[in-house]
User: What shape does this take?
Amino acid sequence: MAPSIRLSPAARSLFDEPLAIAVQGLGPRQQVTLRTSLRDETGELFQASARYQAGDDGELDLARCPALPGGSFSGLEPMGLLWALQPEKPFWRLVKRDVQSPFLLQMEVFEGHGERPGRLLAQAQHERAFLRDGVRRVPVREGRIRATLFLPPGDGPFPGIIDLYGTGGGLPEYRACLLANHGFAVLALAFYSYEDLPKGMKEFHLEYFEEAVNYMLHHTQVKGPGIGLLGHSKGGDLCVSMASFLKGITATALINGSVANVGAVLRYKDITIPPLGINPKRIKVGKSGIADIIDVLNSPLEGPDQQSFIPLEKAECCFLFIVGQDDHNWKSEFFAVEGSKRLQAHGKEKPEIVCYPGAGHYIEPPFFPMCAASMHLLFGKPVMWGGEPKAHCEAQIDAWQQIQAFFRKHLTGKPSGTSSNL
Assistant: This one.
């Protein structure tokens, strides 16, 4: 029989779900190269390949068969062909803009282990979707709010979360959408560089975010009495500010966030929090031309920069810090530890801190390929984000479970029995 690729689920899976990959009909111990590719919505190509040898029965199951050296990865990596995808274009990050359409994954099996692909033996296509059947996507344009609400199937009400991304601006929906697939009502909130919102990151007014919190608190499909906040990078320190000053927040999870206000002035009523100072002389540029900006920010523990430390001791919520210990955007672990010290010094509950060695700045939902370096909007040049691909991938899988367990526990009162396996 001719070789063929067997996938489970067969034709379509959710992006954060594992995909089982096997090849059948090969010759005994036949050497083959497997290649995956997908194009993002701008047409940019991402590819990964791995070298394998079939079993004595001509079967090749990636869950049981290790990849041989010479490809994008080696060893037993059932999902390696997805997490190892790399862009053809330098400094390009895989993002999903339209969550209503899937990514189309192409898979090919080639003869042999040559530098150039041998004869094509089998191929298959698979859709990696973002929106589970029955999840509702609701654009929100109420008052000043520019957002998209994702509601799980069923009657609800559901535990509610506001999701914020970082300095990229716009309205990324993919994390909010994937989280809604797991039973949360999630509001992906734009805060600049989108429609009629401010174009640049000069100053933010917490009243805008308060409108979004109140929208969620009063929504009939959102289970009270409080909501959760999830923020990455700049979105993280905005979530800390929201938790510190606004009512109705029960749980706040930060992915490589800061406990100091960064990049823009923050105003709320008669309070002004200045941004943490920076020293561009501390940028290190390697031979590759990629900037390492990890030391650029001043310490929020010294001098006038102490005014940038967000008063998170005022917060009435529980905190979870997800930390990539190889984050090169800024010192996420330092921020988490200092936030924990501040909370405990004021008699507040010690936050959960989950650290991942070998994980970089962009800890995304599972199976997004690690982005080692890309353009930084504020610096106008490519910067390194840190991370080692395999460790980063494992961190994304675990962090995704930790985040859901944290919100289930604090927003529904039900423990979900998830413990870190790292």
Remarks:
- The chain has six helices and 24 strands.
